């Protein structure tokens, strides 16, 4: 009976360990207040190959600004797998003019270190470029 309990515990621990290597780590990114304090935010993270990481960046399309395409240093180490806009949270109605968030999801592909860089700009000719910059250094193990 003790052997059966031990094996069951070992099996559960192994299953939990396997899940933890593929779950997303804590969200990274920056709020509007952080960008107002410093227009360049730099962070770093260490992830496992196959793991996803969410990056949430302040965004407010009603201002005419948007996040440019993310630039990846080494596409064989890190891959952009999803990019969505998260509207501001209004209980029953959207909050007109309020900031939401640009949510980037990246996946570690292979061992190595690389960077992701993205700029917040007005995309039209003559628009403000690089109002804010976000850089993430990622080490994939």
Write up what this structure looks like:
- There is one protein chain.
- It is globular, with a radius of gyration of 19 Å.
- Helices cover 18% and strands 43% of the residues.
- The strands form 2 sheets. Strands 2, 4, 5, 8 and 9 form a 5-stranded mixed beta sheet that branches. It has a 4-stranded mixed beta sheet with strand order 1-3-7-6.
- It contains 2 helices and 9 strands; from the N terminus they run αβαββββββββ.
- The protein has helices at residues 2-20, 32-37, and strands at 28-30, 40-47, 52-59, 66-67, 71-72, 78-86, 100-108, 112-121, 132-140.
- The protein has a single domain, classed as Sandwich (Immunoglobulin-like), CATH 2.60.40.2020.
- The model is unreliable at 3-25 (pLDDT under 50).
- The longest helix is centred in the first third of the chain and has 19 residues, at 2-20.
- It has 141 residues and is of the alpha+beta class.
Sum up the structure in keywords.
four-stranded mixed β-sheet, 18% helix, five-stranded mixed β-sheet, 141 residues, Immunoglobulin-like, disordered N terminus, globular
Measured distance between first and last alpha carbons: 39 Å
Oligomer: single chain
CATH class: Mainly Beta
Which term fits the overall shape? globular
Order of helices and strands: HEHEEEEEEEE
The overall strand count is: 9
- Can you name the CATH architecture? Sandwich
Work out the count of structural domains. 1
Major beta-sheet overview: 5 strands, mixed
At the third CATH level, what is the topology name? Immunoglobulin-like
**Proportion of residues in β-strands:** 35-45%
What is the percent of helical residues? 10-25%
Number of helices: 2
Mean pLDDT value: 83
Unreliable residue stretches: 3-25
* Radius of gyration from the alpha-carbon trace, in angstroms: 19 Å
What structural class do the secondary elements suggest? alpha+beta
């Amino acid at each position: 009976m003790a052997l059966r309990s031990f094996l069951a515990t070992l099996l559960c621990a192994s299953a939990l360990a396997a899940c933890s290597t593929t779950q997303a780590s804590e969200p990274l990114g920056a709020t509007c207040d952080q960008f107002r304090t410093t227009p360049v935010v730099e962070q770093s993270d260490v992830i496992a190959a196959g793991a996803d990481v969410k990056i949430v960046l302040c965004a407010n399309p009603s201002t005419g600004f948007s996040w440019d395409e993310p630039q990846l240093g080494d596409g064989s180490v890190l891959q952009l797998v999803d990019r969505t806009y998260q509207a501001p949270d209004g209980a029953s109605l959207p909050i007109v003019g309020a900031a939401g968030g640009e949510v980037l999801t990246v996946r570690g592909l292979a061992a190595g270190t690389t960077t992701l860089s993205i700029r917040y700009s007005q995309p039209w000719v003559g628009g403000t470029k690089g109002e804010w910059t976000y850089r993430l250094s990622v080490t994939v193990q």
